[in-house]
Write a structure and sequence with these properties.
Elements lengths: L1 H6 L5 H5 L3 H9 L1 H10 L8 H8 L16 H16 L5 H6 L3 H8 L5
Helix pairs in contact: 6-8
Length: 115
């Protein structure tokens, strides 16, 4: 998603992720609650295929979140983590980011914690 940001800097976020304005607004308003639930239910490090699909696939909603939630909220949260990381490390180039497969380091260095 951050790569899409770089390719389409003037496009609205809802267009980039394929959400309606209402769905994007829901994610923004409920970011802290989604993050808390992912942490509380130990979903962040799950390698269970069904857990991953639940939070990353398109759909009318994200299973386990309120009915108003859009699909693929895990993708949206990951996007916010990478944005935080890149805000803190603006010297990182897009090619460097794309080559970085140390996801734990990106998460840790982002200091992502929505309030």
């Amino acid at each position: 998603m951050y790569f899409v940001d770089a390719l389409l800097p003037n496009a609205h976020d809802s267009v980039k992720i394929g959400y309606t304005a209402k769905q994007l607004d829901w994610c923004e308003r409920n970011e802290a609650q989604m993050w808390s639930q992912l942490i509380e239910h130990k979903m962040l490090y799950s390698n269970n295929r069904m857990d991953i699909v639940r939070y990353t696939n398109d759909g009318p909603r994200t299973s386990g979140f309120p009915l108003e939630s859009p699909g693929k909220t895990g993708v949206w949260i990951g996007w916010q983590i990478v944005r935080e990381y890149m805000d803190k490390y603006p010297e990182t180039t897009l090619p460097e980011l794309m080559k970085n497969s140390d996801y734990q380091q990106i998460l840790n260095d982002s200091k992502y914690f929505p309030e």
